[in-house]
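Ticket reopened. Same input as before:
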Amino acid sequence: MAGKKMTIIASKGTLDMAYPPLILATTAAAMDMEVTIFFTFYGLEIIRKQNAEKLKISPLGNPAMPMPVPIPALVAALPSMQAIATSMMKSMFKKHGVASIGQLLDLAKESGIKLIACQMSMDVMGIKQEDIVEGVEFGGAATWMDVAADSQVNLFV
Amino acid sequence: MADEIKVNQTLDAKGMNCPIPILKTKRALDGMAKDQILKVLTTDPGSQKDMPAWANRTGNVILHVDQAPGLFTFYIQKT
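Engineering reply: fixed in the latest deploy. New output:
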């Protein structure tokens, strides 16, 4: 019940992998849990300004990616395949009434979920604090560990 | 039984998928008074399990569930 906590480390920046952290975080908040998401490495793409709706998915190296017809790896490497796969995935989400990443990010903020961006990954990847959406705090491993040590659920995505 | 339940507010979450029906249910109940009853309509098959799980965690009570093909109706009392 009340008082439970969860943290999630969001480390990936593809369209598909941006979903689990945001879905689980918003759901946990709706279940009265105190939630923190720590965005590190490619996960920072989710909270870069004006970027949440621009995340992409690549069929390359992903044999599980559903395609209308089987696509050989060499074809998957063609320049337009990433755009095709991304728009296909987005229309599948839409058709099934799934919220977009931007909508889920807004819901996360409205639910009072604490968002922390990994300062070290930002330095390495040349991302400035002003490149990150409003309402995000900046910290490092110890910041996450401090919350994680007091949480019942800690996930790395 | 559903006919006897006095509903204070109805939430139409038809066509929405996980986790939006849960988030909207939570938000609707937040704006209601204790003991009031929220009726929630969903089409997401996952909500059959998700709604009771959410209620179990938050302490709100599901009084009754109606199941028609592809349509689920939950009567939830705020605690």
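The beta strands of chain B are 9-13, 37-42, 61-68, 71-77. The CA atoms of residues 22 and 51 of chain B lie 7 Å apart. Please confirm and we'll close it.
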